[in-house]
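Q: Hi! First time doing this. I have a protein sequence and I read that you can turn it into a structure. Is that right? Here it is:
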Amino acid sequence: MRRILVLLAAAGFAAGAGAVAPPASPPPEAVPAADAVVKTDVAYGKDEKQRLDVYGPKGARGAPVVVYVHGGEWTKGDKADVGYKPRWFTANGVVFVSTNYRLYPAARFPAHAEDVAAAVRWVADHIAGYGGDPKKVVLMGHSAGCHLVTLVGLDPKYLAGVRLAPADLRGVVAWSGGAYDLVAKVAEGGTYKGHIANAFGPDEAAWRDASPVTHAKTGGSAPPFLFAAYEKGNTAHRAAERLAGLIRDAGGKAEVVLLKDRTHTTANQLLGSPGDETGDTLLRFVREVTR
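A: Yes, that's right. Below is the predicted 3D structure, encoded as structure tokens:
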């Protein structure tokens, strides 16, 4: 079994000061248990980036499934950047899937979202073989991954392209992100103005269509959402509250939680680490929406 590399995540949409760099390789308690069912670099498409890793609890049958989408400003990141998650999820009876997707400059949007939907299709077709229930799938992302999972959960055209619908998901988790309105992010300026123009093109209409807030009106037919923010009142927290409010206004379910003693980076890196209390919030949500 190859060891999971834990890389320093780039500071994302709302990265805060004081982010803690992880060790170069995970400590023993982060490596999947020897009896876990592990399958890496599974192809869900023809491109070399269309690959995913699966971690299943030994002997699981009909278990909940979390499909994780990494961050990296749509330009970098990797499915191996999962820290403690594989061991923690499988120890709690959850099948964990971490997926790659095509990145800029090799691909431009909507390739990213199309790939997330295609990975979900693969899970629907194959996850039972790893102990998971294809009808108990929760889609989760961090940073840029938060943008992608909320968009796929709200705009039905991406899942429709693989003969699925947002209602086929049991929940969506945005674990520390803030790019839910790309037009507003460009207006803020800073480095993400360039990232968005690169990955999504120069057309404001395209930014708007790729913004989850544009599609929040479908919230009544979408799955429940959990938004996690690391600091009250910052830009990312306000963005999460706005999108959650729009989803609720449309008749959907959405909650926002604050993560104690975390930054944008450590919210992701330390999830499921020994003594981590933020994982309890996530596990509660997963169990509630998949029971």
